[in-house]
Amino acid sequence: MKRTWWIRFALAATLLAVVVLSLRTPTVTATGVPDYRFGVVEAYAAPAAATALGAGWTRVTFEWSRIQPNSLDEWNVVPISDQVLASELAQGRQVTGLLITTPGWATDLEIGPGVPQGLYLPADDPNNTWATFVRTIVARYAGRINHWTVWNEPEIPPGSPDMTWGGSIEDFIQLLRVAYTVAKETNPNAVIHMAAVTHWHDEHWFGKFIDALVADPNGAANNYYFDVATLHLYHEPEKIYDITAHYYRLIHDRGIYKPFWIAETNAYLSRVSPEEQAFFIVQAFSLEIAAGAQRIAVYKMADTETDIAADPEPFGLVQMDGSRRPAFTAYQVATTYLSGFRGGSWERRDEISVVAIDRGARTTTVVWARTPEPQTAMIAARTTRALLVDVWGAAYYVYPERGYYYLDLPGANCAQGCQMGGAPFMLVEDASLNADTAPPPSSPTVPPVENTTSDVTPGPDASPTPTPDPNAFPTPTPTFTPTPTPTPTNTPTPTPTNTPTPTDAPTPTSTPTNTPTNTPTSTPTNTPTSTPTPVPLPRSDVPLSRPWLIVGVLVAAMGTTALVTNHRGHTRATRD
To answer: Sheet containing 395-398: which strands, arranged edge to edge?
Structure first.
């Protein structure tokens, strides 16, 4: 009889342990570099945290005025030493350089602030101070830094404390022309990035710049003097999508096809809570991919003392005391389950947002409420189960009911307008984006916003001649279907420094469907070669809405086992 009770006790303890373990909520952490296309600005400010974050690329700002403050004969190693640069590369992070800030001795004040002396002289003339500087720095870092961004936010007007360029658009094109020519001659693997624009300071600047490039009789023959277009877009994920799509349409309408990098993105903590900043990361990353961004970077890795003076409140992923903000975890989660992206589409934009990310053999669907009221999303299933992941990395398997997943979504904080949605969820399926599904629920107000992608993948060290790398992930170059979308409200979107109140962002209407012909491509360097995969963290193999099934099954199993044990004990006693 004692043996029977011991068996019952052991069985009950085992089953109880199964229940407890099945109800655990694990969290996700990045391991290594999940995808070289996700980065963070100034990773070297907190290198160990950047590695834990899983950042695949970073940016270093090279201020000419600090490197050669008094003459061409100087060379101060700022802001990064060779040892720190080597450490960044050893961690698998690709490093890009930003060239900016003309020193006083080299400035042509008759033209305007920032404009170098001798800019219109031949590039091999030693009096062309800009050409000499670019040649020197590109040669010094060739092979270690091959990506160079020429200037930063040149559209910021005079009078703003953040203004760095006082010349005309034609002067800026000459700056870009000289840098492109000299860099390519010095390092054939050099990739030149157009200076990032913020859109909000002057929403017409980029269009005027592109028109001037098209008018240059030598522009087309010289790849229009840049390989990558760059944007700095902040705070409201949906506006970021609209602006990125607008700029894609703008250059495609003029027959120019370039990959876009969103080199800075984030949300000010002076306008959102730390939790909403985490929501922003997941929402913005998915929409930026759907809009066609080839790479994305968060500004920035860590707070510094100067951030307090420059911005309303520091908003880096790591605080000055070394602690990590919630957005740090959200970045890890987003890059884990968006890694290997090939493109995406914004499928619903009504009471809820549904963004489907194509990851080849996998699909990640990102969902959130766009209203202050909670919503229930009905997502057509592509396969028989999915991993449901929240912004903090808690993950468990869910199963469709009659072909659909049903997700309860928290409402958004709309006290000051719905600047971003509520807490997002990611539904990860081991099925391709075009897998058969049940008919999706129709949107009551807005048709789907679609985005198709090409099969050509620019690698991290792109060159103007297309040489597709078969081992790299395809990179989106979207073709947008004409679709009405809500016009952005007149809400300012911040940059890393103070930003004047902007006007409404234009809403894209149509874009030609031409296939890019001059997208730079080459083989990645200093990046992992293994294909990242999602981290399955099942909490339970039973849908969250059916927890009673676990208890019911276990109780039935305990009862059946007890009956069998009693029957065996009774039989043995009878035989004895």
So the answer is: 343-349, 352-359, 362-369, 425-429, 386-390, 395-398
8 Å CB contact between 332 and 54: yes
442 vs 470, more confident = 442
Question: Which residue's entry shows tokens 């930026």?
Answer: 288
Cα 134 to Cα 112: distance, rounded to the nearest angstrom:
20
What tokens does 130 get? 């800009």
Mean local confidence (pLDDT), 326-352: 97
Interacting residues of 574 by C-beta distance below 8 A, sequence separation 6+: none
- Distance of alpha carbon 243 from alpha carbon 202, whole angstroms: 13
Angle between the N-to-C axes of helices 547-575 and 2-22, in degrees from 0 to 180, rounded to the nearest 10 = 170
Query: Which is nearest to 503 in space by CA: 493, 517, 512?
Result: 493
pLDDT(20) > 50: no
Residue with tokens 């800019």: 119
Tokens of 128: 């062309």
Tokens of 541: 């193999």
- Buried-exposed string 320-350: b where 16+ CB fall within 10 A, e elsewhere: eeeebbbbbbbbbbbbbbbbbbbbbbbbbbb
Ranges assigned E (strand) in 116-248: 147-152, 191-196, 229-232
Q: What would the two tokens of residue 299 be? A: 């500004």
For residue 34, what pLDDT is reported? 59
Residue with tokens 């700056």: 175
The per-residue pLDDT for range 52-74, each reduced to its tens digit, is: 999 999 999 999 999 999 998 99
Indicate if the alpha-carbon torsion angle 248, 250, 256, 258 is positive or negative. negative
* Token reading at 353: 């947002």
Which tens digits make up the pLDDT trace of 203-262?
Answer: 999 999 999 999 999 999 999 999 999 999 999 999 999 999 999 999 999 999 999 999
279 vs 20, residue with greater confidence: 279
Backbone dihedral angles phi then psi of residue 443, each to the nearest 5 degrees: -80, 130
Contacts of 291 (CB under 8 A, 6+ apart): 240, 241, 244, 245, 248, 451, 478
Burial class (CB in 10 A: 0-12, 13-18, 19+), 189: middle
pTM listed for this prediction = 0.76
- Looking at this protein, which amino acid is placed at residue 192? I
pLDDT by residue (tens digit) across 530-571? 333 334 333 333 333 333 333 343 444 444 444 434 444 443
Contact yes or no for 473/338 (Cβ under 8 A): no
- Give how far the C-alpha of residue 272 lies from the chain's centroid of Cα atoms, to the nearest Å: 19
Considering Cα of 428, then 429, then 435, then 441, what sign does the dihedral take? negative
Tokens 């300071």 correspond to 201
How do the domains of the chain map onto residue ranges? 2-23+540-575
